[in-house]
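Blinded run. Sample ID left blank on purpose so nobody reads anything into the name before looking at the predicted structure. Input follows.
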Amino acid sequence: MYAELDFRTPELDGLASRVIPDQYFELKAEDARDSYFTDSSKLDATQLVHDRFRTNPLALHDHLIRALDLRGAEELLDLGCGNGEILARIRPYLAAGHLVGLDIAPAVLEAARQRLDGVATPCEFVEGSADDLSAFDSDSFDRVMAVYMAHYVTDLQACFAEVQRVLRPGGRFLLATDRPDSMVEMYDAHFAALRDMDAPQHLFRATPKARISLDNGTEQLAPHFASVKRVDWQDQLQFAKAEHFMAFYRSCNYCCASSKPGEGLPPAFFTELEDRVHDRVQAVIDDIGYFALTKYTGHFICS
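Blinded prediction complete.
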């Protein structure tokens, strides 16, 4: 067993209290589908960075496999399965099971289908929204998971009620999300650059993940499940080259500054924003050797 990592410091706590906004972007599932998930490239890039630059010896799927508590023959539904990367990592632990991936975005759903094409474990892929699981009978699944996607769901309470309906007795629902102050270092560089540009005030908002976070998730889940257990874990992404961080920053839609359709920001705005963020990140690398993003993340285990 490895020692549990703790990157939290009084300095980071103070930075978060100064930097993280109370207001957050609201992004409808349809907007995400039409502006963010028109293909799987941004999702691919984000996943690659989280795995390549992590310092926690356990990858995301390792934490999820622990929490799912699998025996090998369960039927599992993955809400917002995206490109299927997580399903593919979990599939060997369910070789005798049955996997169903659901997503609202046809392009990433097709990427998931291709990723798992040819495996012997039965896999199905269904286009649909996580707040309407009418395609599935009651008591259909032993496990349901929602990995960093619940903030996109239009009606969270309807989603959780539907999850409770399709779960079999003794089943388990796993919802992964972040604390609001996760990756505060990126927010700090981002908002500092926006201030230097005298950017519009409405851009100074947190990402949509704040809608359901580790801090507020229990109260949203508790009406639907007898047991809600919060599990926290940490990681730190460390970038020795600024260009690798910048690829991640772009894949995050510039902390969601460009996620919402109709914002009307010209390409030159993002060119300048990138240059300013890059300079700040490079200055930290020149000073200490790497730029860190501290991840305060985790999941809820519901039954």
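Unblinding after everyone has recorded impressions. The chain has one domain: 10-302.
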